[in-house]
Amino acid sequence: MERAFTYDVVVAGGGTAGVAAAAGAVKTGAKTLLIEREAYMGGEATHAGVSAFCGFYSCGKDPIRVVRGVGDLVLEELGKIGKGYDDIVSASGNRNINFQPEYLKCALDNLMEKENVDVFLHAAVTGAEVKDGRIRELYCMDDEGAFTVKASAFVDATGNAGLVRMGGAKAVWGGSVQAATLTFRMSGVDTACDMSPAAVEKAILQAKADGIPYLTKEKGFILKKEGSDIVAVLLPSVVPTGISAEEMTRMEFDTRRQVLYYVEALKKYMHGMELAELAVIGPSLGMRETYKMAGRETVLTDDVLSRRKREDGIARGGWKPEIHKDVNKMGTYIEVAERSYFDIPLGAIRSANLDNLYGAGRMISADDTAFAAVRVMGTCFATGHAAGVAAALNALAGKEDAGSVREALKKQGALV
């Protein structure tokens, strides 16, 4: 029996951008489906165990809030579960939101049900039918077999421009891409001890000097949550050269091997981790940059550094360029004015050559340095929310513009 579905808007990918896009589309009045190939939503926050949202606030001292809307709804759901989040100032001096990934999975389930978003987990998009410059239908696969989904508008929130490339839209590889990192969690940690990047560096340099192999990054973050003895460690790193099965397998093997030796090094040389145990790896490698969508407009380095404001802005970016190019070194920052943000234009989330396709999250159109500021998860909530609203307006009215998208976003509590 043929399985076929029809929606107004379909969102491919259930990370922070995808969840925000789906909620935004429904709130605009569109019947919406979110397709996610894993068993749960959350993207890098859950699949890769990155337990901190960067970008809800501007960088530096006295930060201001730059992301609300669906991002706020996610934080509210975390609070309702009883395992909320911590607003903290990280070792980098920036204000982040720390959370526990396992609870985030449940919070996102609850939010999608509350917003009446249809969700297909364990489903992969395998192809797209395109006609007259528009995607008409997606070909998908789950464990029961093949099915199709028709819609009037689509959002690619896959993180690697998967739908963009399947539809024949323009995409670009990230050039000299940023390093990918495999996080891991350790339990039984005395978090009252110094867990700063400087303390990490001292321990790892000693471990390298003493001959512990397979260690890459020497300085990095250990993320902790108040009242918990479990920490997330962001150290094992590799630079992607592609995302094929062969390349992904090589990188997963490589970084999982690194985890074992980092655990040995931290237990031996990091005060407070002497009795700690490895709790969770990953589950998957955390990618910062792969393919990006070519948009009708590109966010430029100067837009980020000058904190450019614009009338066609549909999302705010508060982060500064955070660049990870060297697998042995901590990321570097390009400083920006404090208490400031830049606007992301509608054209940066619109496909350059498909009229009903939008990109969200870490695949919006941006040059290399600007991308290092827009890729963080807080900003992904904002661009995802905007992409969902734009797709819904396209589906329901046959068109959208910056004014109509901004108006709808404001009604839904977003900051534009």
How would you describe the overall organization of this protein?
The chain has helices spanning 16-27, 70-81, 101-114, 162-166, 197-209, 245-269, 301-305, 368-374, 377-397, 402-411, and strands spanning 4-6, 9-12, 32-35, 52-53, 86-89, 95-98, 118-120, 124-131, 134-142, 145-150, 153-156, 171-173, 180-187, 221-224, 231-238, 277-281, 291-293, 313-317, 322-323, 332-333, 342-345, 357-359. A five-stranded parallel β-sheet has the order 7-3-2-11-22. Strands 1-10-9-8 form a four-stranded mixed β-sheet. A four-stranded antiparallel β-sheet has the order 14-15-13-16. The radius of gyration is 21 Å and the shape is globular. Strand 5 (86-89) and strand 6 form a beta hairpin. By secondary structure, it is an alpha/beta fold.
What is the residue-averaged pLDDT? 96
> What amount of the residues lies in strands?
15-25%
Distance between the termini: 46 Å
List the total number of helices: 10
Q: Which sequence of strands runs across the widest sheet?
A: 7-3-2-11-22
Count every beta strand, where a strand is a DSSP E run of 2 or more residues.
Answer: 22
What percent of the residues sit in helical stretches (DSSP H or I)?
25-40%
Class from helix and strand fractions = alpha/beta
Poorly predicted runs of 5 or more residues: none
Shape: globular
Note the main sheet: 5 strands, parallel
Q: Rg from C-alpha positions?
A: 21 Å
